[in-house]
Write a structure and sequence with these properties.
- By secondary structure, the chain is α+β, with helices and mostly antiparallel strands.
- It is about 60% helix and about 5% strand.
- Strand 5 (about 200) and strand 6 (about 205) form a beta hairpin.
- It is extended and about 120 Å long.
């Protein structure tokens, strides 16, 4: 957890690497993922860099492999881990292999498409012949006639010309209308839709076709009809006019179709075998090519020292990982056999290093929450360390229910227990990936929700009477039977000892339980909020000490924390005093009885407005002696903190700047002093405006942020009431029956109750509480000390590069599937 407190210390290193050792060294660094390289050729075009040929070569191999991957019938198995970097000879062999595979699959695919096109044409011709036999019949007589009658009909149509073919069904109405227009009605058009759609041999899309025959007289109309057919992309087929010739052609077409089906089956079988052999090594080849491309792309960031004949690189490295970089350089020299070693040395710089927080599988989710708001400035305090506890706790304050917490904990525990299995089976479901990435966050949120559920004594809107209620009654059975509700007097009906853990279960049955829980949860929200904000303000001291700005402790931290504590922590103290001082016991003073208990909110408002409260005769205006004087003192000190926050930092910065300038330059002339004074006045004005914005934001934000923590109370109350509604309006109806038939009704009602419990209370309410907790951390807590103006450490890492490339490949595949209406490429 030490590295989570603030980002790791980074150093800027300069590397001098021999050209022959650069490849192996970069491979070692890519596997380690500890160095972020800087581009030393920012003004050089990508096409003019040293290794542009190698990058193009790898890009071409990657393009070919992506095309081959699109032809695979199913995703390939995971890649085998590459034990070492590829030698130039191995790269050449791999390139030749990829070229051969691409050519072979292209040839197989091209042949298969040609065969499918022929198969489609033969099927269209077969159906056309079958349909045209019906067209040539005498439709005024019976549909099925003998061969001798059909021969007489053939003689009738012999003097007419005709054209037969197939056209897309969607174009038939326009096609028929155009034929009618160009012939002025001197044609006879017959059509019949094909029931089963064909399959496009190129795209695989379904094709709905219609068979047609156009009868006409004369060559001129024939030419016009052919032009229209060409314009509507209709396929024309030679069809004999006589029944005997049609039967002979049909028999020949059927025979050719059977032969072609056999050839297609063999071709598809061969294609599957070839792709299955390729799929075994496909992922390994893709990994090797992508690593190769990443190495040369990074080498293009290096500069070339022509005199020393070596490559020069600069990179940010965590100080703890310097030995890994040095070892990678040594391995490169050893593998290449170069007599000249690679050199690494530190480069002093004033540039701001990148921010790097080393995380594990547990802390990664919490760090992502903070990074979503903004990357921490280099070496400032990292809020993720404290968010591990505060985030699930504040979530649980809003989501506090023992039953719902058990459901959430069970789900997260299952995901955590089988996380290795889920990591191997990567999913494209974004919602599942979000849940899986935050599995440890969900686990802690569930555990904390179980704790707050015990404190609230709330489990699916019912209370648990574990220790026995500390409330009793003195009524007999007849009184209890005649009254649906009774008033319990805390003076007589309360034993005086509090319930050992959480809220007494008797409040579940009280008519004023909402009033009681409202007061209780609202006060807790204010207390937790003030503590959370005070902790955030205090964390700024750690930043001031580390960045050597001790003056800001006196000019910023002390007035801010005093303003917060003298006003709002005092409000919390009044809440504790009210809980302790006022009682329903008759033995205490009447002024400290429940009837004289003041409203803390009214007391605080009157304190801010400096006005007196109106109380009963027997009650006291203030809770203790000297309260008015103390409150005025607190208020005066709080108001005095505002000008300190407003003017303290600008005055000190101007004074410090002038002091340094006088120390460097000594006493200056009158003209120069006048110019310097003008410049100082302008700088002072800018500082005052900036500081005024921050001061107003803090003062007003203290009030608004304190009120913002009331969402802890509001969401907790809403969650409890929704749970109670589901119990009273849904599940309770099923429990009211006593017969055997009511058991079936209870079964159905329990299913409805369980569905709404999971969908609304666990998922929707859980998401709502999560977002509100996120806002409390981003705005109310982190704004007190977190700058978030840094940039992320992105090392040269094969793992990150391959993961990003895999996500891009999945995105491209999704787009391709969308274009193909959900069908994979053939």
């Amino acid at each position: 957890m030490g590295t989570m407190f603030r980002s790791e210390e980074m150093v800027l290193c300069q590397l001098f690497v021999q050209s022959e050792a650069a490849y192996v060294s970069m491979y070692e660094l890519g596997e380690a993922g500890v160095a972020q390289f800087r581009d030393l050729n920012p003004h050089v075009n990508d096409f003019q860099r040293r290794y542009v040929t190698e990058v193009r070569r790898c890009s071409e191999m990657e393009r070919k492999l992506r095309w081959v991957g699109g032809e695979l019938p199913e995703p390939p198995p995971p890649a085998k881990s590459a034990p070492h970097s590829l030698t130039p000879r191995e790269i050449n062999i791999l390139e030749e292999r990829i070229d051969y595979i691409e050519s072979e699959i292209q040839e197989i695919t091209r042949n298969a498409r040609n065969l499918k096109s022929d198969y489609l044409a033969l099927n269209e011709l077969k159906l056309l012949i079958e349909k045209t036999q019906t067209f040539f019949q005498d439709h005024g007589a019976h549909r099925k006639i003998s061969a001798s009658v059909q021969q007489n009909n053939d003689a009738v149509y012999a003097h007419l010309g005709f054209i037969a073919g197939v056209v897309a069904t969607a174009r038939v109405p326009a096609f028929e209308k155009m034929l009618w227009r160009i012939s002025h009605g001197n044609i006879f058009f017959k059509q019949a839709q094909i029931d089963e759609p064909f399959k496009d041999p190129n795209s695989g899309h379904p094709l709905q076709k219609t068979v047609f025959v156009v009868f006409f007289h004369g060559e001129q109309i024939k030419m016009r009809v052919k032009k229209v057919c060409h314009g509507f992309k209709a396929t024309l087929y030679p069809c004999p006019a006589t029944y005997k010739e049609q039967q002979e052609m049909l028999a020949g077409v059927v025979c050719r179709i059977k032969d072609l089906e056999m050839v297609l089956e063999q071709t598809e079988h061969h294609r599957r075998l070839v792709l299955a052999n390729i799929a075994k090594d496909f992922s390994t080849w893709m990994m090797a090519v992508r690593k190769e491309k990443a190495i040369y792309h990074t080498l293009n960031m290096f500069s070339m020292d022509i005199v020393k004949k070596c490559l020069i690189a600069e990179c940010w490295v965590p100080k703890e990982d310097i030995t890994i970089v040095q070892k990678a350089l040594d391995n490169g020299v050893k593998a290449s056999g170069s007599p000249i070693p690679s050199i690494l040395h530190y480069v002093p710089t004033r540039e701001t290093p990148p921010t790097f927080n080393r995380t594990n599988k547990f802390t990664k989710g919490f760090q992502n929450l903070i990074d979503s708001y903004g990357i921490a400035t280099y070496r400032e305090v990292n809020p993720a360390l404290y968010t591990i506890i505060t985030f699930p706790f504040l979530f649980a304050v809003m989501f506090g229910d023992l039953g719902h917490g058990i459901i959430m904990t069970t789900f997260a525990s299952i995901v955590v227990f089988y996380e290795k299995k889920f990591l191997k089976e990567k999913s494209d479901n974004e919602v599942w990936n979000i849940f899986f990435g935050g599995r440890y966050i969900i686990l802690l949120m569930g555990i904390f929700s179980m704790y707050t559920g015990l404190i609230y004594n709330d489990m699916f809107s019912k209370s648990l009477n574990i220790f026995g209620s500390t409330w009793t009654h003195s009524h007999d059975t007849s009184v209890l039977g005649n009254h649906s509700s009774l008033i319990l007097n805390p003076t007589y009906d309360y034993t005086g000892s509090p319930y050992p853990l959480g809220i007494d279960p008797v409040w579940q049955f009280a008519e004023n339980n909402i009033i009681y829980l409202n007061s209780f949860k609202m006060k807790l929200s204010i207390i937790f909020g003030v503590i959370h904000m005070a902790f955030g303000v205090t964390m700024s001291v750690v930043n001031f000490n580390y960045f050597k700005k001790p003056e800001l402790i006196f000019l910023q931290y002390i007035p801010q924390i005093l303003f917060l504590l003298l006003l709002f922590w005092y409000l919390c103290i009044l809440m504790f005093m009210k809980w302790i001082m006022y009682s329903a016991d008759l033995g205490v003073d009447v002024a400290y009885g429940t009837s004289c208990a003041p409203s803390v909110l009214i007391l605080f408002i009157n304190m801010m407005l400096m006005k007196k409260s109106t109380v009963k005769e027997s009650c006291k205006e203030y809770m203790y002696d000297g309260q008015e004087t103390l409150q005025k003192t607190f208020l005066a000190f709080a108001f005095l903190c505002v000008p300190v926050m407003l003017f303290g930092k600008p005055i000190y910065m101007v004074w410090e700047k002038r002091k340094r300038k006088q120390y460097r330059q000594g006493v200056e002339s009158g003209d120069t002093t006048e110019v310097a004074n003008t410049h100082n006045s302008e700088a002072m004005g800018e500082l005052l405006i900036t500081q005024a914005i921050h001061t107003i934001e803090y003062v007003l934000g203290t009030v608004s942020h304190t009120a913002s923590y009331l969402r802890l109370w509001a969401l907790s109350l809403a969650h409890a009431q929704l749970s109670a509604v589901l119990w009273q309006r849904v599940l309770k109806m099923g429990l009211s029956g006593r017969s055997a038939a009511d058991a079936i009704v209870l079964y159905v009602i329990f299913g409805v109750w369980a569905f709404f419990t999971l969908a609304i209370l666990v998922l929707m309410e859980g998401l709502s509480a999560f977002l509100h907790t996120l806002r409390l951390h981003w705005v109310e807590f982190m704004s007190k000390f977190y700058d978030g103006q840094g940039y992320l450490f992105t090392p040269f890492s094969f793992a990150a590069i391959l993961e990003n490339d895999e996500e891009d490949s999945k995105a491209r595949l999704k787009e391709q599937l969308k274009e193909n209406n959900g069908r994979p490429p053939e």
